[in-house]
Design brief:
The structure holds 2 protein chains of 2 kinds. Chain A is 38% helix and 27% strand. Chain A has helices at residues 3-9, 60-67, 89-95, 111-121, 127-138, 153-165, 183-198, 210-214, 233-240, 252-260, 282-293, 307-322, and strands spanning 20-31, 34-45, 49-53, 75-80, 83-84, 96-99, 171-175, 202-207, 218-223, 226-231, 243-249, 267-271, 274-279, 298-303. In chain A, helix 1 packs parallel to helix 3 (89-95). Chain B contains 16 helices and 5 strands. Chain B has a 5-stranded mixed β-sheet with strand order 2-1-3-4-5, with helices on both faces. Chain B is elongated, with a radius of gyration of 28 Å. The chains are: A alpha/beta, B alpha/beta. Chains A and B meet through helix 3 and helix 4 of A and helix 1, helix 2 and helix 10 of B. Chain B: This is ABC transporter permease. Chain B: The chain crosses the membrane at residues 35-55, 191-212, 239-263, 269-291, 303-322, 361-379. Chain B: Belongs to the ABC-2 integral membrane protein family.
């Protein structure tokens, strides 16, 4: 760590703050000869909830770690909260709350002790009071002396989020925060995230869940280390140029198998009792399904592509390019 | 919004505050870990009693045999006297020279006493007859002091039993002995100060050797690294609680050594406490350095033991320092335990002052600073 970095480590956050909280260009990270993140650029504006989507091993965690200074990019760079991600990671760490994918609080410390520890490390003037307030806000009053390791998954996640926001960060980096959490807890969690964002906090959250992606102000889709799409949900769907038909009726399994082999059909996926059939070229897709349109056992209707359709399509294309 | 929130809760207390945060966390975890906590108290006591009683270079009841070439009062008196010392326990009487040799060779006895023919007559005539004491020299430490004690004891016994005049010439013995191993009569006096160093080395090394790897294995390291805390703050926060633990251990050992084994503290107790604290911090720093190098807890423990072994063997605890070859002494000279042994033995037994121990103190401090520097440099602040 250079002395320039140290000098700014304890400096207050930029008062007004830049409007673009994350601004990185050409980020590249290699582990050995494997390129995990390739030439990734992204901008996240203040107060945004930015969804970071992609399959397992696509480079989401690596990107988040580069943003908060836990990994050094092999190429590219940029700023996070106006601080250089290469040289000012200590300043970034002060104003970033990072929730790791795996629960990483001290399991042998109680809820209160974990919060107080974080409060002290971040130099809060009253860590004990701050911890008490956080416990009340999280609804953990009855559990403040319980060891963190004995909490259920949902409570662990609440505590982890509470610990992240304890030092009043300006940016939250959440790495698959809702993995393995029940739907009710997930919903509560997202309500909390929206409340925080409304207060001006910027949130970058990685997830696998499409419903969560739809709750974000903007999303970025990354696969095999490459950013494939970004923008608002509508924007991404529109930009995909995907035409979709929904078909219901009898014998959908056979139909799906046959359509998947038909040129012009790029994606076939069952949704409940229906089948989604999508293609990038509208005319080709309609030609492909034309023979089945007249089947009285099937009912066809044109539909809007869902985010999931788009991602599955993006992923299969990315697979073609990088596998 | 953020300006207000950021300003409200956060006055930076800097270095001390973060170190304190780490220290409190470590103390809490230590308190939770009952087994570790118990071992911290029990290890020094157990080891002190085990080593203090069991590792005894002045052993008792060594199995011995006797070959009587004549039946004489003097001979019997010598045997009685030897038995009374409790050094020797006569397990068998050999009938022939060959049986005598065989019993020693096969390990039935560690000692053989041969009273030659015409021993009593020769003794009365002042002809300095030879009382042959054959010792199994494979364990010189075990036999050394028993042999050393023989000379005086047999003379006293003869005087008492047979009323020989005080000025009678001493009996001469052929003793196969190793001059190096002739420890002072009361072993514990030498052992306890050494044990203080051994126990502190072992426990302190292990405690900090585990500390960083544990964070890594439990997955807490990623969070910790994402916080605005410096490596040196993490290190001090992890080392300082154990300085207290080590100090308590040292107090237990010195207290028990004084009470149970009657080891004196001739020198300045405060000086002993101060230099012991330095030694504790040195070992904690070395353990912490291992922790930053090791990939997992098992490796850390192995490294600690790799370091522990030469400390035991080459520090002068187990074998006299001066008796070691030159190269071994050089290695010993860079081991903290070597210097601490000189310090404890000096202060406790000889009343040595700080001026005399200057060199050893500086060596300990230097070792600590080197270890801490390596640890801080080695500590990876990123997950790269």
């Amino acid at each position: 760590m250079g002395s320039a970095d140290d000098a700014r480590a304890d400096a207050p956050a930029p008062a007004a703050g830049p409007d673009v909280v994350i601004d990185v260009h050409g980020l590249t990270k290699r582990f050995g000869d494997r390129t995990v993140v390739r030439d990734l650029s992204m901008q996240v504006r203040r107060g945004q909830i930015y969804g970071f989507l992609g399959p397992n091993g696509s480079g989401k965690t690596t990107t988040i770690r580069m943003l908060c200074g836990l990994l050094t990019p092999d190429a590219g760079g940029g700023t996070c909260l106006g601080y250089d991600i290469r040289t000012e990671s200590r300043a970034i760490k002060r104003y970033v709350g990072y929730m790791t994918q795996r629960f990483s609080l001290y399991e042998d410390l109680s809820v209160r002790e974990n919060l107080e520890f974080v409060g002290r490390v971040y130099g809060l003037s009253d860590p004990v009071g701050a911890a008490r307030a956080a416990i009340a806000r999280l609804g953990l009053e009855g559990r403040s002396e319980q060891l963190a390791g004995t909490l259920s998954g949902g409570w662990k996640q609440r505590l982890a989020l509470g610990t992240c926001i304890l030092p009043d960060p300006q940016l939250l980096l959440l790495d698959e925060p809702t993995a393995g959490v029940d739907p009710k807890a997930r919903r509560d969690f997202w309500n909390e995230i929206h409340a925080l964002a409304a207060d001006g906090l910027t949130v970058l959250v990685s997830t696998h869940y499409m419903d969560e992606a739809e709750r974000c102000h903007a999303i970025a889709y990354i696969a095999y280390g490459v950013l494939l799409a970004r923008g608002g949900v509508e924007e991404v769907v529109r930009a995909s140029g995907l035409s979709t038909w929904t078909v219901s009726g009898v014998g959908l399994n056979d139909l799906g198998a046959r359509l998947a082999r038909t040129p012009g059909v790029d994606m076939v996926a069952p949704f409940g009792a229906n089948l989604h059939v999508a293609g990038r070229d509208k005319a080709l897709l309609e030609a492909a399904i034309a023979p089945y349109r007249s089947d009285p056992a099937l009912s066809w209707r044109p539909d809007r592509a869902t985010l999931e359709d788009v991602f599955i399509d993006l992923m299969s294309r990315a697979e073609d390019n990088f596998r | 919004m953020n300006g207000g929130r950021a300003g409200a809760g956060e006055r930076d207390g800097g270095f001390l505050r973060r170190t304190w945060a780490m220290l409190v966390k470590e103390l809490l975890q230590l308190r939770r870990d009952r087994i570790t906590f118990a071992t911290m108290i029990l290890i020094p006591l157990m080891q002190l009693l085990l080593f203090g009683y069991a590792i005894n270079t002045n052993p008792r009841n060594l199995p011995a045999i006797v070959l009587m070439q004549e039946e004489s009062d003097v001979g019997r008196a010598i045997l009685t006297a030897m038995r009374n010392t409790a050094y020797f326990s006569f397990v068998r009487q050999a009938r022939t020279e060959a049986e005598f040799d065989r019993l020693i060779a096969d390990g039935t006895a560690q000692f053989g006493v041969e009273i030659p023919a015409n021993f009593e007559r020769a003794l009365r005539r002042g002809e300095r007859p030879a009382l042959l004491v054959a010792a199994d020299a494979t364990d010189p430490v075990a036999t050394g002091s028993a042999l050393a004690a023989l000379n005086g004891l047999v003379r006293t016994a003869l005087r008492r039993e047979r009323g020989l005049p005080d000025e009678a010439p001493p009996a001469s013995f052929e003793i196969r002995t190793h001059a190096r191993y002739n420890p002072a009569a009361v072993t514990q006096l030498n052992i306890v100060p050494g044990l203080l160093g051994i126990i502190l080395t072992m426990t302190m090394l292990i405690f900090t050797a585990l500390s960083v790897t544990r964070e890594r294995e439990r997955g807490t390291m990623e969070s910790l690294l994402a916080m605005p805390i410096r490596p040196v703050e993490i290190m001090l926060g992890k080392i300082l609680p154990y300085v207290g633990v080590g100090f308590i251990q040292a107090a237990i050992i010195v207290g028990a050594g004084t009470l149970v084994f009657g080891v004196p503290i001739v020198g300045n107790l405060a000086l002993l406490a101060a230099l012991s604290t330095l030694f504790i911090a040195t070992n904690l720093s070395i353990g912490y350095t291992f922790s930053t190098v090791a990939q997992n807890q098992l490796q850390a423990v192995q490294m600690a033991f790799m370091f522990f072994l030469p400390n035991i063997l080459l520090s002068g605890f187990m074998f006299p320092f001066a008796g070691m070859p030159r190269w071994a002494q050089w290695i010993g000279e860079v081991l903290p335990l070597t210097h601490y042994l000189r310090i404890t033995r000096g202060i406790m037994l000889k009343g040595t002052d700080l001026a005399t121990l200057q060199y050893d103190t500086l060596m300990l401090a230097a070792a600590m600073l080197v270890a801490m520097t390596i640890a801080v440099l080695r500590f990876r602040q990123t997950l790269d």
